[in-house]
Amino acid sequence: MSRLFLLSIIALIFARIAGSPSGTASNRVLFSAVLGVTAIGAIVHVAWQSATTKMIFSSLGALKIAHDSFWLVIARALLQTVPGAVGFGWLYVRRGIESAILGAFFASVVAHLLFVFVAVRLV
Question: With a threshold of 0.90, does the pTM exceed it?
Fold first, then answer.
């Protein structure tokens, strides 16, 4: 939820820098703010994922467990984060906070239902 408010602050800052009249922002400014917040969120997510993975494998130090390379972990984290962040940011900018929250809710429900149906088929 904090990313949406960060998006508003960054859009306001970008609009001031671009010299937009008070209370307005162009589509370019808004999309730049969405991409900026997406980049910030992706960096935080990758850092958290990397620290967690490093902590888990260092605590299992004596065990030799094969794990993914660092770049594969980063690529996977970016593929999980960026499309949703851009999509929900666009929803927030265009339709408001309610549509972004509902979009995230329905995406989560669909993802869980697909997981359940796939897991039931595999068992």
Answer: no
